[in-house]
Amino acid sequence: MNVTLSTGPTGIGTRSARAHLRPGDQPVRPIPGLYWHPVAEPEPTVYEELDRRLKRWAVDDIALFPPEWEEQFDSFGTGRYMCLTYPDAASLEHLEAAGQLMVAENAVDDCYCEDHGGSPHGLGARLLMAHSALERPHSIAPYEQQWQDKLESEAPCRAYRSSMESFDRISADQVRDREIHDLARLHLGYLAEASWSIDERVPPLSEYLMVRQYNSFRPCLSIVDAVAGYAFPADLHDHSKVQQVIALAALATTLVNDLYSYTKELRSPRPHVNLPTVIGHHDQLPPEEAYDKAITVHNDVMHRFEAESAACLAELPGALTARYLKGIADWVDGDHWWHATNTGRYTLPGWLA
Amino acid sequence: MNVTLSTGPTGIGTRSARAHLRPGDQPVRPIPGLYWHPVAEPEPTVYEELDRRLKRWAVDDIALFPPEWEEQFDSFGTGRYMCLTYPDAASLEHLEAAGQLMVAENAVDDCYCEDHGGSPHGLGARLLMAHSALERPHSIAPYEQQWQDKLESEAPCRAYRSSMESFDRISADQVRDREIHDLARLHLGYLAEASWSIDERVPPLSEYLMVRQYNSFRPCLSIVDAVAGYAFPADLHDHSKVQQVIALAALATTLVNDLYSYTKELRSPRPHVNLPTVIGHHDQLPPEEAYDKAITVHNDVMHRFEAESAACLAELPGALTARYLKGIADWVDGDHWWHATNTGRYTLPGWLA
């Protein structure tokens, strides 16, 4: 993913929609020509309470960030994001667990991979350290405790450990295992992109699309059952047709992020590889045309996601499958709307005026 | 893992037990002081047939290696390794699927990480390419097919793709998913070790033991049910007590490999981090004492594995749990015996005379 806490070089504390606009950039709104579905706007009282709880957890329980990052944390809109993407949530506690996981994922990305002290160099060791906070590693005294102490000394690792404890309270063991697997996929995706960055390599589009199924929103998507208070059984979840639908949804949502964060990434200190830049590089297209083609690629992925989702339900008919696939589709739609309305974070390129 | 096809700088084609002995080195046999259990020697007619099948697969089906690597392939003893570690196997076809997976894992390690063209540099992109061959990534025409063509052009990726197809025929969907997860763990472990190598960093023992639960034999261990022709259900497998037992078994077997391959790794072109070298570095011990302490660490992990296995069965009593835990213990014992008797591959340090 690339939904980081950072606001780019406009600097910490300058957050506001206008502060992000460069001459020519447009306030965020749905990208013209993008294929998406409308969603209901959630209740502010609900997501404001959720944000209060998440903030209390981040500050009091795990000391996630120094005071100067507070405004960035607040401006991300995690509570509204959760309400938009999990409309079927069983309770505020369920949304809280999902929100903690996303905050933790962003912290790992920011602090280990990206602009808040992260780097593509040495990332393999840092990411496995973080990953080990998701599933307690076992060895022998005194080394097992020494490793736990090391994890507790790192804010992103505390966030992973604590959010997985919360998730454990709302999910079955097999859904916890699924989530850890999806986070392993995410970390493998980060590491592939880190190697591109070190080698200053722009991958061909076929490779880029593969990697964006790993560095993707999959860990958020695949837990729609747990957040809704039920468990989609492993034998259904692991069926190749369901796996295909999840993979396509993960890709579609991640490409939405590429499109909405395009101008933000142009302003970041390190060059970012994203769908428009990959297309522009290999097809030798000017930015407007590359961005246009990226919209088409996204739309084609969305159409395929919807077609395979229908085919999956036909092959595995049943109320549980229908509910899980509906949850995935809801997540996709809510994710788009969060991006299209997060005016404090994103702007559209000027030529879309 | 570090069970590579390579024979070290003695060179391709010089394989024989004697060719590996340096002055002072001892032919392999059980390491004095190591805690292990004896196993029954398998039937040569069975493992020789298995080796014939694996060779035919490697050569005819997936063109895994050039002719000059043939002797190394033969000398690894994959068939006997499989028979020793899966004594409960349901059929030769089941052993074949497990053997293909191990051959494929070794090919990925050799060709992408280690001495047959591998390197710690750029490994993130190569390993995710390989990983994507385990679970077909989905996008849209023509990029999806372009990526499949790329995977088919790479021998280690063909090996992963084909061995997972064989495994799919003998396993439930949820065991396939488990195996892909364990291979993601393996790849994250490789990437952590690659970053140590690039940074020339020797991790503290607590970190080393954590990482060796990822870069470990876990993908071989965890499929003992599938190879025996049954599926240990996800809700049992994903229980934290079972996860603990698997993690400790993965660590114990991997430390056995560290001890038996110690002299082999001393001769490899790049310095290898292993349990005795980590201990020697941080405790400032001469090699003999560091090796001795490494034996103690291994034995302590083994004792903890056995204690937690008994505790696990007490907490989750039942025939399926008992059978699965017995399968894990059998794998641990067979793995030790393969290492202790693979005279073509390993030697012991001279001071163990």
Question: Keywords for this structure?
Answer:
homodimer; 353 residues; mainly alpha; Farnesyl Diphosphate Synthase; two-stranded antiparallel ribbon; 2 strands; 64% helix; disordered N terminus
Which architecture name of chain A does CATH use?
Answer: Orthogonal Bundle
Q: CATH fold name of chain A, please?
A: Farnesyl Diphosphate Synthase
Number of E-type strands of chain A: 2
Radius of gyration of chain A: 19 Å
Largest interface: pair, residues per side:
A-B, 69 and 69 residues
Please state the oligomeric state of the protein chains shown: homodimer
Q: Helicity level of chain A, as a percent range? A: 55-70%
Widest sheet: strand ordering of chain A:
1-2
Mean pLDDT across all residues of chain A, rounded?
92
When the domains of chain A are counted, the total is 1
User: How would you classify the helix and strand content of chain A by structural class?
Assistant: mainly alpha
Order of helices and strands of chain A: HEHHHHHHHHHHHHHHHHHE
How are the SSEs ordered, and which strands pair?
The structure is a homodimer of 353-residue chains.
Chain A: H1 17-20, E1 26-27, H2 44-61, H3 70-75, H4 78-85, H5 92-113, H6 123-132, H7 143-152, H8 155-170, H9 173-199, H10 205-211, H11 218-221, H12 224-227, H13 234-237, H14 240-260, H15 262-266, H16 275-283, H17 287-315, H18 319-341, E2 347-348
Antiparallel strand pairs in A: 1-2
Brief summary:
The structure is a homodimer of 353-residue chains. Chain A is mostly helical and 353 residues long.
Structure report:
Two copies of one chain form a homodimer. Chain A is mainly alpha-helical and 353 residues long. The first copy, chain A, has helices spanning 17-20, 44-61, 70-75, 78-85, 92-113, 123-132, 143-152, 155-170, 173-199, 205-211, 218-221, 224-227, 234-237, 240-260, 262-266, 275-283, 287-315, 319-341, and strands at residues 26-27, 347-348. In chain A, strands 1-2 form a two-stranded antiparallel ribbon. In chain A, helix 14 (240-260) packs parallel to helix 18. The two termini of chain A are 27 Å apart.
